[in-house]
Amino acid sequence: MIRVLMGKPGLDGHDKGAKTVAMALKDAGMEVIYTGRRQSVDQIISTAIQEGVDIIGLSILSGVHLEIAKELMAKMKGKGIEGIPVVVGGVIPQKDIPLLKSIGVKEVFPVGSTFEEIVKGIRRIVNKE
Amino acid sequence: MSSSDEIKKERGRWEKAMLAKNPVAPTKTTSGMELDVVYTPSELEDFDYLRDLGFPGEFPFTRGVYPTMYRGNLWSMRQYAGFADAEESNRRFKYLLEQGQTGLSVAFDLPTQMGFDSDNPMVRADVGRVGVAVDTLRDMEILFDGIPLDKITTSFTINATAAIILAMYLAVAEKQGVPMDKVGGTLQNEILKEYIARGTFIFPPRPSLRLVVDIIDFCKDRIPRMNTINFSGYHVREAGSNAIQEAAYCLSSASTYVEEVLKRGIDIDDFAPRIAFHLIVGLDFFEEIAKIRAARRLWARIAKERFKAKNPRSMMLRLFCGSSAREATVREPLNNIIRATIDMMGIVFAGAQSASILSYDEAYTIPTEESALISLRTQQIIGYEIGITKVVDPLGGSYYLENLTNRMEKEIKALIDEIDAAGGMLRCIETGKIQMDVLKNAYEIEKKKQSGETVIVGVNKFVDEQKQDEEIVLTKIDPGLAEKQIERVRRVKAERDNQKVEKVLKVLKEKAMDTENLIPSIQEAVKAYATVGEICDTLREIFGEHQESVVL
User: Fold this and answer.
1) pLDDT at B437 over 90
2) Is residue B508 within 8 Å of B525, Cβ to Cβ?
3) I want to staple B323 with a disulfide (CB 3.0 to 4.6 A). Which of A106, B230, B343, B456 is the partner?
4) What CATH code is carried by the domain that includes residue A55?
5) pLDDT range class, residue B474, cuts 50, 70, 90
6) What residue ranges of chain A have pLDDT lower than 70?
7) DSSP state of B102
8) How close B199 comes to chain A (CA, Å)?
9) How would residue B318 be classed by pLDDT, with cut points 50, 70 and 90?
10) Distances in Å between the alpha carbon of B267 and those of A87, B26, B253, B262, B401?
11) Closest to B439 (Cβ–Cβ): which among A19, A32, A37?
12) What is the pLDDT of residue B498?
């Protein structure tokens, strides 16, 4: 069973997207751990290690996706868990998608992505790793 | 004149003769109310005009809380906007006042709303992002510099830190020499919905509720022109509830607050005339209007029958209404202007006292000056150019609308009773029941959008492939702003009397352990230039921090 960590970093409280995607992943047979709102990158990393997840998904709507992704990637490396794939969803302009991928994000699901696309994308990434 | 029996008989005939030959699929409102093809007096048989509608400005206020509604005064047009720092906001406020606006609306950044100082490294990315950053009284002095607080009213979207912001506002008024009975405004101060939806909570629900009631209690005699709470269904709806849940949760929360205030021996008529509600009007036009009318009638009855209010003003559901953000789209965003226009017409038909509608780019970013202006213009065009404001509750008496209003009222009431039976709103939030029910509904809504069952023009129907890759532009935040704000709070901390700050915070801590009203001690702390973060940290030590129980 694929174990997914759904993270909601930063102060932004809009987590309807994170939670509905989590429900869709559960319905698709995955196990989902949702961190809850207002998590620091350090908290997300320590939950990922504790729970031994296969993939980390971040939900970011407040425009700080590049900063957060950079911080997460660097800190994951510091903890030696850079092997866990990371995907990002939320309000992400098209032009930022290649930037996110260049720093190591495996896939980006901007607003408008369907549950099916997200489920398939996660399966593809986890099965490849 | 045809009798009700004749109408019923004729309806039966018509159904056989006409409807049976032109079959249509059953349909429902967005919250699941089944709809007939047409409505007639037969569907309003239990309708009693004087009992159910009455006259505007009179119990049960179904037709509106004021006798002449928009013939007397239009609703107040209060677009919600945040400007990054105190100086910029102050300039903007002065400009708006010069243009004849009499009320200000302040949006705060998330660190201010959640009790963190700007120099806290954890919140760096959020400083000044969605509103103005306020760390100390110094920021508030700059924010209202040269603005006479006895001449204007200010609406604050603030919850967990509402007591601190109130204390700062009063301190500025005091420095201006404005008597406290001349200070007016509105505090959102509705913490329960933060746990269900919006997310800017700090402490667990019970001590938070104490702070809310402390504010209501404190202002009741001292600051009579302050609207101390806005019962909010808006955010819960945005988080995914349906219209019935929105109204039921809002009214249940309202009852919870009222009960807490009554427990202190305060009479309902001493504070209820100053409370207001915040609900949404979205695209399911008639259901939304029916919901508001039903909620108005229900609240009037709750206030009168359950809480024994005597003053009719205590029974009025005065309404600040917002348009629907969840129905705005990222694709082809200009279409959101049309959606907001329709919402705004619904808001007028529903009879709101003030309104704020979504700007077309708000599905993905903070509105620009241009998009915010279009929202204001939308309100003005509806207010001044079309005739829907000339008659009170012009849709009242429609067979369909009255039938739907009655049915919505019944459903909302049933859900309120269910919450009461489950131990009340506070208990249902603590157990996560409400959050789960909202999430389930949000998930269903999203699935219906993705399957195309819910049509969204330009997104899942009539899709323009060429527009699929259209780039969205996010509003830029000046990174220098955070630096400036951090510098300011550090300077205040260096210049103030730190021994005094320690002393006032110690007193606050002692009071927090006790049951005394906390506002006077918070006032002392604020005047000593203690920061929002320091005051909240002091309270965190006693109250603890709320940990979300995450259920999926």
Assistant:
1) yes
2) yes
3) B343
4) 3.40.50.280
5) confident
6) 129
7) -
8) 5
9) very high
10) 55, 49, 18, 6, 36
11) A19
12) 97
User: How far is it, in rounded angstroms, from Cα A6 to Cα A109?
Assistant: 13
Report the percent of chain B where pLDDT is more than 70. Answer: 98
Fold of B54-467: TIM Barrel (3.20.20)
Arithmetic mean of pLDDT over chain B: 94
Domain range holding A100? 3-128
Q: Is the peptide bond before A85 cis (omega within 30 degrees of 0)?
A: no
Q: Which of A12, A23, A26 sits opposite B110 (nearest CB)?
A: A12
| Distance of alpha carbon A76 from alpha carbon A79, whole angstroms | 5
Q: Please tell me the distance from the alpha carbon of residue B469 to that of residue B471, in angstroms, as a whole number.
A: 6
Encoded tokens for B179: 């008597």
- Residue B47, pLDDT score: 92
Backbone angles phi, psi at B483, to 5 degrees: -55, -45
Helices B335-350 and B369-384: crossing angle in degrees, nearest 10, is: 40
> Is the interface score ipTM higher than 0.90?
yes
Give the strands of the sheet with B230-232, arranged side by side: B76-77, B354-356, B319-323, B276-281, B230-232
List the alpha helices (DSSP H) in B82-191: 86-98, 110-114, 137-143, 162-175
B250 has a pLDDT exceeding 70: yes
Of B459, B399, B346, residue with least CA distance to B36: B399
DSSP for residue B43 = G
Q: Where are the beta strands (DSSP E) in B296-341?
A: 319-323
The answer to whether the Cα torsion of B539, B487, A8, A116 is positive or negative is positive
B201 and B194 in contact (C-beta within 8 Å)?
Answer: yes
Is the model's pLDDT at B461 over the cut of 80? yes
* Ranges of CATH 3.20.20.240 domains, chain B: 54-467
- Please give the pLDDT value at position A129: 66
Task: Measure B170 CA to nearest chain A CA, in Å.
Answer: 28
Q: Please give the average per-residue pLDDT across B239-246, as a whole number.
A: 97
Residue with tokens 């399957």: B451
Closest chain B CA to residue A23 = B552
Average of per-residue pLDDT across B248-266? 97
pLDDT above 90 for B99: no
CB contact under 8 A, A38 and B447: no
Residues of B in contact with A109 (CB under 8 A): none
From the list B261, B279, B280, B260, the residue with the least C-alpha distance to B271 is B261
Domain count, chain A: 1
Give B196-231 pLDDT, tens digit per residue.
Answer: 999 999 999 999 999 999 999 999 999 999 999 999
Is the pLDDT higher at B166 or at B3? Answer: B166
Question: β-pairing, A86-90 with A107-110?
Answer: parallel
Q: Give just the sign of the alpha carbon dihedral B30, B33, B36, B40.
A: negative
| Rounded Cα–Cα distance for residues B219 and B206 (Å) | 20
Residues of A near B (CB-CB distance < 8 A)?
A: 10-16, 19-20, 22-24, 26, 32, 34-38, 40, 62-64, 67-68, 91, 93-95, 111-112, 114-116
d(CA B551, CA A65): 25
| pLDDT range class, residue B551, cuts 50, 70, 90 | low
- The answer to whether A93 contacts B474, with C-beta atoms less than 8 Å apart, is yes
Q: Which one of A34, A95, A111 has the shortest CB-CB distance to B552? A: A34
Helices (H), chain A: 16-27, 41-51, 65-78, 96-102, 115-128
